[in-house]
Design goal:
The chain is of the alpha/beta class and 282 residues long. It has 10 helices and 9 strands.
């Protein structure tokens, strides 16, 4: 496995590869990331993983400074998972001058997580486009845990004619249902036990919709109330059309229910995609 820090060196290493899969990460890797790597190995002969904590997608009061950096352990995990190249630039490599040219994401970037993290998706889309231009992958893999991010990256690649296939990979969960996340490490042991409530709230909403409930607003409010009653600080619970992230309507048949909420000092996000059951089964 080659560990490279320079743009020129990673381009030279990958130039002769007939098919490259890219897995962008911010490091502090867990089984969710490694699942992406293993899936990437099925799609391309060469798997490149980027590790870069992108300042542009963090707000002024967010956790950029304390985001876990575990580079040596990450490389050990990637080597075992079968990665071929690790691209680990520093800030001066990716941003040699102040980044004044930024990607303007679609309007959905100002909703859901974007309403609470202004500028986040602009910074995310900018660094992902830079990585696409540097690595020039044939396919890029992203976890569905950040469903909004995946939708924005897909739209960016399509509308800016980036020659890459964007693949979403299902969320990896613990045995208790909690979505794996680098930020789970911020949770205290007591909070870790309580954190499973977020997934249970989402599954409850899914089951209600599949059972025929079409009062989406009431279901969202009920989910927020359950979390609030248990001491969470809720950003949102939302039912959306899976393909567009538009507000869900009764005519939709493919949905995603998404939530973001704070447990103590940790912000957790999660979502569940689902389809309606045939009317005959309602």
């Amino acid at each position: 496995m080659d560990i490279l820090t320079g743009i020129d060196s990673v381009r030279a290493r990958l130039r002769a590869e007939p098919a490259v899969a890219l897995v962008p990460t911010m490091g502090n890797l867990h089984e969710g990331h490694l699942t992406l790597v293993r899936r990437a190995k099925q799609l391309a002969g060469c798997v490149a993983v980027s590790i870069f904590v992108n300042r542009l997608q963090f707000g002024a009061n967010e956790d950029f400074g304390r985001y876990p950096r575990t580079f040596a352990a990450d490389c050990d995990k990637l080597r075992e998972a079968g990665a071929d190249v690790v691209f680990a630039p520093d800030e001066t490599e990716l941003y040699p001058v102040p980044q004044q040219v930024l990607v303007e994401p679609p309007p959905i970037a100002d909703e859901l997580c974007g309403a609470f993290r202004p500028g986040h998706f602009k910074g995310m889309a900018t660094v992902v486009l830079k990585l696409f231009n540097i690595v020039r992958p044939h396919v890029a893999l992203f976890g569905k845990k950040d469903y909004q991010q995946l939708c924005i990256i897909r739209a960016m690649a399509e509308q800016l004619n980036v020659p890459v296939t964007v693949v979403g990979v299902d969320t990896v969960r613990g045995a208790d249902g909690l979505a794996l996340s680098s930020r789970n490490g911020y949770l205290t042991p007591e909070e870790r036990q309580r954190a499973t409530l977020l997934y249970r709230v989402l599954t409850g909403i899914r089951d209600a919709v599949q059972g025929g409930n079409r009062d989406f607003s009431a279901l969202e409010q009920q989910g927020e109330k359950i979390l609030d009653r248990e001491g969470w600080r809720v950003d949102y619970v939302a039912l959306r059309a899976a393909a567009t992230l538009d507000p869900a309507g009764p005519e939709d048949r493919e949905w995603v229910v998404l939530a973001a909420a704070w447990l103590g000092n940790t912000r957790l996000i999660d979502n569940i995609e689902f389809v309606s059951k045939p009317d005959s089964l309602l």
